[in-house]
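Good morning C.,

I know you're traveling, so I'll keep this short. The sequence:
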Amino acid sequence: MFVLAVAGIVAAPELRAAKAAAKAETAVITPAEQNKFDKFLDDHPVIADALIQHPGKADGKEFLKTHPAYATFIADHPKIAQDIKAHPRAFVERFLKREDSTPITGEQAKLFGAFLGDHPKIEQELSEDASQLKEPKFVKGHPELLEFLDKHPGVAGEAAAKPVRLFIRAELAINKSAE
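The tokens, ready to paste straight into the viewer:
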């Protein structure tokens, strides 16, 4: 018993040193790499939403299996993968901070979230590619969406300027109202 206690005392400084070394080895992400990750999240709103909700699972086998585009991205960007693993919440917080720099109002997100809740087919199509909101052909192909955007010009402006951001915020509003 005494030997184990002594071993534990000796191991503690070694453990602290190992943790400090691991932290020091954390990749320094360049602004260019940050922009690549931001662009990836902009292009993959479902993955962005999943990361926002569960950032600690970003390197889990199930998450990578469920999101193969994300698995490929982090395989191609090992420094980003290393930093996400070390600080999963930091990337999410930076992403949301960037999103908030030109905010979508809570009211706009709620309105669009309610619309999507009532139109699951449109919600599904936008979850696959939210940038379709910028496409006149897509909007005209969904008369109820066109009517909604005509009635809510603030939401329409956000849809044209920041479709992915609007979709993510609307999804978050749906999730909050369901809780």
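Safe travels,
E.
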